[in-house]
Amino acid sequence: MDVLEKLTILTDAAKYDAACTSSGGNRTAKAGYIGNTSSSVAGCCHSFSADGRCVTLLKVLLTNRCVYDCKYCVNRRSNETRRAAFTPEELADLTINFYRRNYIEGLFLSSGVFRSPDYTTELMIQSLRLLRENYRFNGYIHAKTIPGTSPELVEQLGLLADRLSVNIELPSEAGLKALAPEKTKAAILAPMGQIQKRNRESKEELVKYRHAPKFAPAGQSTQLIVGATADSDLHILRLTQGLYDRYRLKRVFYSAYVPVVEHTLLPSRDVKPPLLREHRLYQADWLLRFYGFRAEELLDDKTPDFDPRVDPKCSWALSHLEYFPVEVNTADYETLLRVPGVGVTSARRILSARRVGRLCVDDLRRLGVVMKRAQYFLTASGKIPDGLRFTPDSLLRGLIAAERPLLPQQEAVQLSLFDAVGVG
Prior knowledge:
alpha/beta, 2 domains, six-stranded parallel sheet, two-stranded antiparallel ribbon, 38% helix, globular
């Protein structure tokens, strides 16, 4: 099997991993090396993967051979699929030649578990060491840490990569036992803890000695599969909150489960991926990271899942109407962030603009406030938009109407002469 054929198989096998980012790196130009991570905001050129995602990195598996038999995974050992594996030399040569042709500016490297986590990680380390030392590659590298890998190998991998990620995949221990019994919660969280601790120590060392080696300077991330198990949005969001609090993750990625295999414990292959649910979780994740919300504020045991009709911030506001309306001329930054339609940038603009003079309703749209949502929840100099009248019921309808154009529309279906029609 030639390298191009391997590339076709192993890039296709990597397409379900959403935790592929190039943010957070600060590896600047270095004498005698090629590439850096700060040439643009993204750090890399954009390309398109086989599943249509716009990516900035060569996103590939070292191998799709795997000793595990996770029931949801297309690369599980019992699945009949074409197998391939790069040698470290092939992968390093392929990456550097793609870089020289300006196809990519970085690498996202993951792998199936070939023989054992340690053996697979050793091959990944060899590949990255060839890139860094032989080819003098100074660009962005994101490497996947395999649960169960020894701490010594995680240490070596972190010194070669800009970002590490450990995929949790299934949000609950019950889901792991049912669908991936060879994996354990402890094996997944152990490298997360090591990466978080070692990253903190690396930053402290750099304060004392600026040439100290950097350990995963862009931090770590993880991925959760949404829809493969019966876990609620509340459970997923609580897990996310805990990961941010305990391990200081840069990102938690959510991947709507794509039914690619048949199994009694999994959704049928006829079931569409829950893309809208994935979208709502990303919106809620943004609220956790940038808006000061906590998981328990957005959902509770009585309402464990998000309303698909409105975004999580609007849903929270509808449940807490006692906080509104907010007066934009007097509210503090944290309060402004809780208003639907007001984002981080527009909240800062409001604080800056009102130092000059009092704001009126007409000023808010120019400051970037999305008035089709915000108009129901704020006042400017004690006034609301002219002609606005609403009740709690019409408020919900108005927010749903504002959200509807942003959601995927149902596909048009050709009617048949023989379709049943209503009477009357």
